[in-house]
């Protein structure tokens, strides 16, 4: 990704200056809007892929953060721009409304520079991963043989990206569905087979060592024979995919919904995004070692 373009939407001048001072040392290109209406105009004046992340206050005159978010999510060209909402710790109802509208990143006031940078980098990383899915989707020949049942095995994150893109083409909404498959497969590789815990991943991302640690663990003898299996069944009315890893399971219930305690962590949103954004049904089995995801947005087998 080139230097990220960030749009800050904030009506309070003091808060606006604080965000600018925190972010200006990180090498981002910063753009400012005083409310949602001004932001909407600015976004549409730029190419559709110009902004890589939007940071918006919740309450503003003319058009607030939620109204701006809802407007953007109705436009396919802006759907996957990560949207960070600033809110207060006692506003769970506002956060739930934001999640329903498609916001998965939050800044709980008062914020620190460390927290702000952590959330922004998490959003940008997810944005790049999701953009890779979309790019791969455009490059795959869609004239592949019709598939009704299949099983795949994988070990690496690169393989997870490729397979996510391929399977998503069986649906009528490959952009959103592909993101869901990717998040679940990444979770199966990192946390399932390689045993990277939530706290370990937090530290590895913070220290810029996650990729290095994933490669190290992939090369360990105890992980040499560990695979993630993806089995699919495709019918005219649904596409059912079951992903199974060889790990010890995890407390999946904690990650299906939004958690205020983890709102500003540098990761941990993938399962919730898959649950809310991608699938009609998402069910974990075998203590978290297996997950079944179903979408009814499926291309008919007869095509």
What's the SSE blueprint?
Layout (H helix, E strand, L loop, with lengths): L4 E5 L3 H11 L5 E5 L2 H10 L7 E5 L7 H9 L9 E6 L3 H10 L3 E5 L3 H27 L9 E6 L2 H12 L5 H20 L4 H9 L3 H9 L9 E7 L4 E6 L25 H9 L2 E5 L4 E6 L8
Parallel strand pairs: 1-2, 1-3, 3-4, 4-5
Antiparallel strand pairs: 6-7, 7-8, 8-10, 9-10
Helix pairs in contact: 2-3, 5-6, 5-7, 6-7, 7-10
Q: How would you describe the oligomerization state of the chains in this entry?
A: single chain
Largest sheet: 5 strands, parallel
- What is the overall pLDDT average? 89
Order of helices and strands: EHEHEHEHEHEHHHHEEHEE
Radius of gyration: 20 Å
Characterise this structure.
The protein is of the alpha/beta class and 303 residues long. It is built from ten helices and ten strands. β9 (281-285) and β10 (290-295) form a beta hairpin. The protein is globular, with a radius of gyration of 20 Å. It starts with a strand and ends in an 8-residue tail after the last strand. The model has no long low-confidence stretch (mean pLDDT 89).
